[in-house]
Hints:
The chain has a domain at about 25-125: Ubiquitin-like (UB roll) (Roll). The protein contains 3 helices and 5 strands; from the N terminus they run E-E-H-E-H-E-E-H. The chain is of the alpha+beta class. The chain has a 5-stranded mixed beta sheet. About 25% of the residues are buried.
Amino acid sequence: MPPRPPKIVLTDPFAGLPDETAEPAANVTFQPFGQTVPARIGKTLLDTARVEGVKLPHACGGHSRCGTCRVRVLQGAENLCEIDVVERRTLKQYAILLPGFRLGCRARVLGDCTVHVEMTAEQAAASWNEKGSSAWRPRGGWK
Length: 143
Ligand code: FES
């Protein structure tokens, strides 16, 4: 008689993750704008910025491919999730794998923090069209 296959136990892949429907429980300050906005635990900095109307460039739409959402963490680095493989790869690809730098579309909020939106004046001017959406593309196009 063949051995019985191992018993499959279904688990909730989202168990243990913060409840995204919970009320905002943290504050994120975006510099140089000086905007402090409420943030839901577990949301990315980019999601938080979008919801609250903070202009954080995001040329790839938050898919961790362009590096335009880069921020420098000024305070509360311990209140952001760890850098994962995807974020590390993109930061390295755009030569911004530097201490304190994070991608807004990957860094999830775990508590209060302050970040500086890192963009040049040209990017800032070109990032937003009249409809308020990002139009900036990385030099040399998409990798
Ligand atoms: S929005 Fe493109 S890397 Fe974050």
